[in-house]
């Protein structure tokens, strides 16, 4: 079974990806965590990590989709 993500995590992550996509990396959770901390005021470490994880997941999927379209 996969991990369940709340709609708040998904909405915030999508907004961050839309605004800061050029600064984010699909390979580095720690780098994305720093960007998320600067982009949004999130007081909970767990919530910040969930958002950074979903951002990284979204970027990995986008990268895979782009590579599959090139082939």
Helices and strands, with pairings:
Layout: H1 7-20, H2 29-39, H3 45-70
CATH top-level class? Mainly Alpha
Overall structural domain count: 1
Total beta strand runs: 0
Helix content: over 70%
Note the overall shape.
globular
Biggest sheet features: none
Kindly estimate the percentage of residues that lie in beta strands according to DSSP.
under 5%
Let me know the CATH homologous superfamily. Ribosomal protein S17
The assigned structural class equals mainly alpha
The oligomeric state is: single chain
Provide the residue-averaged pLDDT: 92
Radius of gyration: 12 Å
- H/E topology pattern: HHH
Low-confidence stretches: none
Would you kindly provide a written description of the structure presented here, covering whatever features stand out?
The model has no long low-confidence stretch (mean pLDDT about 90). It contains three helices and no strands. Helices cover about 70% and strands about 0% of the residues. It has a single domain (about 5-70), classed as Orthogonal Bundle (Diphtheria Toxin Repressor, domain 2), CATH 1.10.60. The protein is mostly helical and about 70 residues long. The protein has helices at about 5-20, 30-40, 45-70. Helix 1 (about 5-20) crosses helix 3 (about 45-70).
């Amino acid at each position: 079974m996969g991990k369940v993500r709340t709609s708040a995590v998904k909405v915030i992550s999508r907004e961050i990806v839309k605004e800061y996509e050029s600064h984010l990396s699909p390979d580095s959770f720690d780098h994305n965590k720093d960007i998320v901390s600067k982009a949004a005021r999130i007081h909970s470490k767990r919530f910040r990590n969930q958002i950074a994880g979903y951002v990284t997941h979204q970027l990995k999927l986008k990268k895979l989709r782009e590579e599959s379209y090139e082939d």
